[in-house]
């Protein structure tokens, strides 16, 4: 892997996967800007994974304590300015209010606003900086490009129910549909990483596939959140890997 120094903006940094993205980037001596509602919660979450990590990497970590959608356009531009990559690990809280309350378009609106901030910065640059945008989805989100294999009838019915009964699922689908429209800017490249069943555990080896390889429900494959984070970090730092998966929606699994 090429030894480079990057700057990455991570949103959803206190989430179960986002905290691993932050920590793994720091461990690879990269600079990180993170948006978190609670700075202390993010620092504590890093400590839970690796003791003393928050103090060890404090010079490389800049935390904006805020709710992303409450930030002004100007502030988002400032946060995204100079970044080589933006990683969105936002998700809805698994509570009644988190699932059915507002904001129902958290991921979609965040994706749109972040892309707008990136492009607004590029419009002001004489030599626009190429930026990677990595969106975390789920294996239940179909590829808008119709590159996935057809699901079985029962699985399609479940996806239909999820789409209209669970706002977070529809939000993830809409965010993926939106990012697929971003094809006219040569300096904004993207990928949507779709993990299968998420588990806790340390980073190990993982596999990426261009489409789901298991049943939507009842499959025997899973992936640790740390491995999902690792796949994202590897895409940021390894150019060949990025070239392979940009403008695609890879699914990620623990390696058997």
Please characterize this protein's 3D structure.
The protein contains 10 helices and 10 strands. With 256 residues, it is of the alpha/beta class. The strands form 2 sheets. An 8-stranded mixed β-sheet has the order 3-2-1-4-5-6-10-8, sandwiched between helices. The protein has a two-stranded parallel sheet with strand order 7-9. β1 (7-11), α1 and β2 (31-36) form a beta-alpha-beta unit. The chain is globular, with a radius of gyration of 17 Å.
Question: End-to-end distance, in Å?
Answer: 23 Å
Can you give the helix content as a percent range? 40-55%
Query: How much strand?
Result: 15-25%
Low-confidence stretches: none
Q: What structural class should be given to the helix and strand makeup?
A: alpha/beta
Instruction: Estimate the mean pLDDT confidence.
Output: 89
Number of helices: 10
What spatial order of strands do you see in the largest sheet? 3-2-1-4-5-6-10-8
Can you count the beta strands?
Answer: 10
> Major β-sheet, in short?
8 strands, mixed
**Rg over alpha carbons:** 17 Å
Order of helices and strands: EHEHHEHEHHEHHEEEEHHE
Shape: globular
